[in-house]
Structures are given as C-alpha cells and as structure tokens.
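hey so i finally got around to running the thing on that chain from the lab meeting. sorry it took forever, my laptop kept dying and i had to restart like 3 times. anyway pasting the input first so we r on the same page abt which one it is
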Amino acid sequence: MLDDLVGIGMRPAHYEKLTNSQVDIGWVEVHSENHFEINSEATYYLDKACDRYPISLHGIGLALSSNELLDTIHIHNIKKLVDRYKPFRVSEHLGWSSIAGQHYSDTLAIPYTEENLKRVIRRVEQVQHILGQTIAIENPACYCQYKNNTLTEAVFLTELQAATNCKILLDINNVHISSHQLEFNPYDYLTSIPSSIVSEIHLSGSNKQLKNNHITFDQEHSQKVTPEVWQLFEYYLQHCNTIPTLIEWDTNIPQLNELLHEAHTAQKMILKSQRFKNTC
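ok and heres what got predicted. didnt touch it at all, straight out
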C-alpha cells in the first residue's frame, strides 16, 4: 500500500544514488515529458528506478484548460510511458499554458465558469479515453481571477471529478499561494475538497517576493517546505485518510540527504496523525 508513503521527484542530480542502491523513500515521481525520448539518459535511469520504486507520472504540458486543440500526439506519448512503466498514478496540471501554439512556463488564470467546466470535462474524458485509465488533476497556483467567474476553484474541481471520475492532486503550496493572492481562507478550501476524491498531495516551498508593493510568490519549487505549508498539511491530515504525498523540489536541487529529510518529516507527520486517529 502506498497510501501512507512519501515520495520525491527524480531529478538528474540524484539519478546515480537513486538507482545504484535502494534509498529509503516510498516512491518517485517523474515528469512525463522528460521521458518521451526512449533512447535518452533520463529514460535509461527511469528504467533502472522502475526496478526499485513505484513510479508516478506527472505531466505539465497538456494545458487542459487552454482553448487549443488537445495535442493527441502528446497524449499518445504519455500512453507509451504508461504501457512501459505501469505507474501507480498519472497526473496533469489543470493549466492554461498555451495560446496560439505558444507554451508558457507559468499557467495563466483559469475561467471558473460552467462553460469552461464543460469544456475541461470533455478534454479530461478524451485524455482518459486514450490512456485507458483515470488521471489526477492538480489545482493551480492563482495570482488573479476572472471577474465573470461563477464557480469557486474547489467547486470546479469537485464537479470535474464527479463528471469524469478523475482524481484530484492536491498541491498544498498552490493552495497557500492562491489563498494569499486571492484573499481566501486556505483551511476552508482544504475542508471543501472531499478527501475521498484526492489521490495525491504535493508539498513544496516558494519564495515570497515584493513587487509593486504587493507580495507575490515564485513557483519554482526551489526551497524547503515552508512553515505555512507544513501547518496546512498537518491540518489536512486531521481531516482525511492517508494519501501518497510528494516532496516537490524542481530547481536549485539540494543534496539528496536534504530532500530525504523533508520526506521523512512528512512521513513522521503522517504516522503521528495515524496514531492520533487510532486512539480516538
């Protein structure tokens, strides 16, 4: 069972250590797009890692909320990875990151309207049909919102899940960022997402920056999990069953021991929550 296990992202700096011996970690996540080229260093090490750890595929390029046509070649490339590695989870961002064929590193604001919900439902259904399985959809970090929104993000996600039978990847750092930028209560957000539809949690750190006298956050996942995110995670554990959790660290990659320390901190919090529930 993976439900109470913590994973880390598999990055080139740690390829050798992760694959030459068994590291004390529950599972590893890889970005799907890094492994579309079969005859590559990345895929060579993923082949080796697959012999040691459960694998999760996380996509960042489908732009599920964009107006562009879905890139079916991209989806079929993910399908090849699914067939090759049999991942326990396939996930994708709820992103609007492409316009007129141009892709952007940061996702744009998503319209939370009934019209857009219907369109995203169709796109998720198409992806799942090609892959032959359900996927998990990650909540974005939002810096602004549309004035004509008719749904909250939480309602948008829960209705998307109900219509497609997909799952939700709950990125708690993204909740923290969005709640600060859009001025809502992150604890209310967490309790509004039924834990039964959440299949994975992401934890990461983000730097606060002052821009035009307003605090913003980077989204590079380039540091330790912040105290605010740990607090939200601890709160969420009190209200849900245990769920596979990832320490996400994408840039400014630290030594493997530091990354494992973050993962072990999350693992201890999960075990503490389990013990508390067992005594109630």
